[in-house]
Amino acid sequence: MQYADLHIHTTASDGSDTPSEVVHKALEIGLRAIAISDHDTMDGVLEAERAAEKFNLEVISGVEVNTFFEGKEIHILGYLIDPCNEKFVAKLKELQGDRMTRIKKMVDKLNKLNIKIELERVLELSSGGSVGRPHIARALVERGYVLTLQEAFTNYLGVGKPAFVSREKLSPKEAIRLITRAKGVPVLAHPGLSKINTYLLDLVNEGLKGLEVWHKNHTPLMVEYYAEIAKKYNLVPTGGSDYHGSAHDTCNILGGAVAPFDSVQLLKNAHQKLF
Hints:
8-stranded mixed beta sheet; DNA polymerase, domain 1; 42% helix; TIM Barrel; globular
């Protein structure tokens, strides 16, 4: 059976592997398709496509849009959007500006807690990509305030923690509309983590087309449950490892969770219906 890892991050956002490195690793483990789905950017997609040109590996364009709803972070994946779509790319740049404002506020909060890290170093760690909390976490590890990236989130950067700043400007429904307008297929990421089951029907009515059934942090019972939910609402079942690179403490195994290759065709079918 052929498999696809449809949730992968690269150095274009908060991953530690370049898009080309991801492609080569995907080939090594025998994946049939991958989706580059960085946070609020599609800058890594074209590089991955070029790296895979001569191989039997399909690269799906993707993006992960971070939203906030009722005190929870909700991530919406968007698939098969043209990475050269000027209007969509411009909106992503706007979201990256929001990210920068948020990162500055988090660094300020840490400094007020007498945890001295510099914004300039956080930006250096992002290597010019879409900056995010993992880059702050890496700075905290560097300075010895925590031992691991996960500890940084547990103690300071996670929802409700002392240095957390929410993104309240974009709701899940707005993200779905944004992706749909760009002729993309909106999919709810890792529903087992966001735990918004009672809100799911509202998202379906707004235009949600898929559900991430297979994910590194989904238990077998969760997979079974969300597979049934996807079937009930006629949503495309997708899945992926949420890979962030080998330098990360968690989500560091490419192909650690996969979807059957059939999911790729189902995404394409959903995409065709948008035209």
